[in-house]
Design goal:
The chain is of the alpha/beta class and 558 residues long. It has three domains: 186 residues, 3-Layer(aba) Sandwich (Rossmann fold); 148 residues, Rossmann fold, CATH 3.40.50.980; 104 residues, GMP Synthetase, Chain A, domain 3, CATH 3.30.300. Strands 1, 2, 13, 14, 15, 16, 17, 18, 19, 20, 22 and 23 form a twelve-stranded mixed sheet that branches. Strands 4-3-12-11 form a four-stranded mixed sheet, with helices on both faces. A four-stranded parallel sheet has the order 6-5-7-8, with helices on both faces. Helix 2 packs across helix 5. The protein starts with 16 loop residues before the first strand and ends in a 5-residue tail after the last helix. 47% of the residues are buried.
Length: 558
């Protein structure tokens, strides 16, 4: 989408709010010449490698958490170049061709992503746990010319899509062929699509989100600026600059969070430790084994670390930062985590697939102390808080739908012009669908998804608020809240509870606990105990599944 014009004068330096335009502007400083001009032909892969120091970093670029196998920076760059040559000469891939990538988080996957983007082909990573029906829907949207799949999932893909099995002789031969025939230089526009990511589908069927090279370059540029700023501030304070990060990625690489974290790690010259799937015990062991310093995680992981005895049996002293995303983090959970792990800084952030990842975040320890906030608006971004009913743009402290604009906003939804027009207006404003507000200091607070607000007798009840309260109970391991259909009230707040092992918590105790913390209209009125809360790969609660589950239970079981 088009990038906004220069910010007008009259902006409040604290909140970033301009009263004349009713627009919030980023208060983060950014270098005017750090982001390459839009007219410059360059791929996201080329830009990522251009940020690396010379000589190349002598630390591993990628590590497999399960086996300990490591890939160096010289090796990954050589592998990307030779594979790119094979993709061009042997498979005949050209700029704009879409390649579906369906595999767990293995070492060859980031190499394949970079190789595809380097020749202007479009990466389209998909969940290896999807069903054949789901793959058919994704293929109908993105129309890939080829698929790269792990052996265990190849048979689930539509038969008409040409498939190369990762690890097969056919796949290995691509690198061999490419070593002898490098692809010719290609002029790829930054406005061209680099990746098609599939939205999580928490409120409907998945959509195919087109992310441009410009989107990814802007994201990496911001991370690089943040790293330089942190180093300068440390030097000014007479301290050592932050060391290169060792980032554990229990996140799937087909989701925007994991996809962007790999880009960030490689472009910054850090080390990324990949895990094929999330397993809490394996996460703890990997932190200890690889001396992990940075862990991206959803809020339930913090809750588990607080309440788990297993976490206390591992040496987690290397861990410096937890980057929280995927769902709002409640003040109660953040404060309890800080009490148990005082040396670990919580970095909170907010983003969505349609914004290529992070829109807001905290970058300093004092900002991270603003518990409950998603941080400040990222550099080069603008935002509005819009009343969903009147369309009026609101000021600091007022709640409304968050709209954002800037170089991170997606190109659109592939194959769905109607949804694109409904989500991004003609001026480039992306309507996030999230109920939010900025405070007087420019910190963003996420109240809830607008579509997930529970309507109880005309009142609006945010499920996330009740979930934060429930997760603070020592007898509750996990919780989710939905609106249960009711003829008289419209919807009743209903809680799904996962008890802590050994807990005998009752429905009434759950109801009474929440009632002590909220106004009467927000009280939980129905409770169901379950073994697990259904969630997306990024940790978002799949409320539609819970609604269906509640309806199938029947009133007598609630």
């Amino acid at each position: 989408m088009a990038e906004p014009a220069a910010a007008p004068t009259g902006i409040d330096p604290r909140s970033g709010f301009c009263a004349a335009t009713r627009t919030f502007h980023s208060v983060r400083s950014s270098s005017a010449d750090a982001l390459p001009p839009e007219s410059l032909p360059i791929t996201a892969a080329a830009y990522a490698f251009s940020l690396l120091a010379s000589p190349l970093p002598d630390r591993p670029a990628l590590v497999d958490a399960a086996t300990g196998i490591a890939v160096s920076y010289p090796f990954i760059i050589a592998s990307v170049r030779s594979l790119a040559g094979g993709l061009w000469s042997s498979l005949g891939l050209r700029p704009g061709d879409v390649a579906l990538v369906v595999a767990p988080s293995r070492l060859e996957v980031p190499v394949l992503h970079f190789a595809l983007m380097s020749i202007g082909a479009v990466v389209s990573p998909a969940n290896p746990a999807s069903t054949p029906e789901e793959y058919a829907h994704q293929v109908a949207l993105s129309r890939p010319v080829v698929a790269f799949a792990a052996p265990e999932v190849a048979d689930k893909l539509p038969a008409h899509v040409s498939c190369v099995v990762l690890g097969s002789d056919a796949y290995e031969s691509l690198s061999s062929a490419g070593a002898e025939a490098a692809p010719p230089p290609v002029a790829v526009k930054q406005s061209d699509t680099a990746a098609v990511l599939y939205s999580s589908g928490t409120t409907g069927r998945v959509k195919a989100v087109a992310i441009t090279h410009r989107n990814l370059i802007a994201l990496m540029c911001t991370h690089a600026e943040n790293r330089k700023r942190a180093a300068a501030e440390a030097t000014d304070a007479g301290k050592e600059p932050p060391p290169p990060a060792v980032t554990l990625l229990p996140l799937p690489l087909f989701h925007v969070f994991g996809f962007m974290m790999v880009l960030r790690s490689v472009s910054m010259g850090d080390t990324a430790v990949l895990m094929e799937r999330f397993d809490f015990g394996a996460v703890l062991r990997a932190i200890e084994r690889y001396r992990v310093t940075l862990l991206p995680a959803a809020p339930p992981v913090l809750v588990a670390m607080i309440k788990s005895e297993e976490a206390r049996r591992h040496d987690l002293s290397s861990l410096l930062v937890i980057a929280v995303g995927g769902a709002p983090l409640g003040r109660e959970v953040a404060e309890r985590f800080a009490a148990v792990f005082p040396s670990v800084q919580i970095v909170q952030g907010y983003g969505l697939t349609e914004s290529s990842g992070a829109v807001a975040g905290t970058v300093r320890p004092e900002e991270s102390m603003k518990y409950g906030s998603a941080g400040k608006l990222g550099s080069r971004l603008q935002a509005k808080i819009v009343d969903p009913t009147t369309g009026e743009a609101l000021g600091p402290g007022q709640r409304g739908e968050l709209w954002i604009r800037g170089p991170l906003v997606m190109k659109g939804y592939v194959g769905d012009d109607k949804a694109t027009a409904e989500t991004v207006d003609s001026q480039g404003w992306l309507k996030t669908g999230d109920l939010c507000y900025f405070n007087e200091d420019g910190f963003l607070y996420i109240v809830d998804r607008l579509k997930e607000l529970i309507k109880y007798k005309g009142y609006q009840v945010p499920p996330a608020e009740l979930e934060h309260i429930l997760q603070s109970h020592p007898g509750i391991a996990d919780a989710a809240v939905i609106g249960y259909p009711d003829e008289d009230a419209g919807q009743l707040p209903m809680a799904f509870i996962v008890r802590q092992p050994g807990s005998n918590l009752t429905r009434q105790q759950v109801i009474d606990y929440v009632a002590k913390h909220v106004a009467p209209y927000k009280k939980v009125r129905r409770v169901a105990f379950v073994n697990a809360i259904p969630k997306s790969p990024a940790g978002k609660i799949l409320r539609r599944e819970l609604v269906q589950q509640a309806l199938s239970m029947g009133a007598s079981k609630l």
